[in-house]
Amino acid sequence: MKIKAAVVRKPGEEFAFEELELQDPKETEVLVKIAACGVCHTDAVARDQLIPVPLPAVLGHEGSGVVEKVGSAVRDVKPGDHVVLTAYSCGRCEPCVTGHPSQCIHG
Fold first, then answer.
1. Model's pTM, two decimal places?
2. Considering all CA atoms of the chain, what is the largest pairwise distance in Å, rounded to the nearest integer?
3. Which residues of the chain have pLDDT under 50?
4. Which end of the chain is less congested by CB atoms within 10 angstroms, N or C?
């Protein structure tokens, strides 16, 4: 499936909209057709590598949309469900318990 995404390829580089190929969801994944997505300060510092992320990267972790497909092990949502998205955080690691869930080492 072809998608359009904001991609960062080098530290500090502006987001560039590119067409990418997206695979079907794996066993525990959900494919969401995004209606809206925010790009926040966390994304900007990840782009600038103040929070190290592997590059190239598609950033933007706050979104909403409609579930299109689910992996075989997914039971909590189904195609057609309206959902909101955010970054995963475990709630137990040092960054999480000190008020920095966006820096979760398990997310």
1. 0.76
2. 39
3. none
4. N
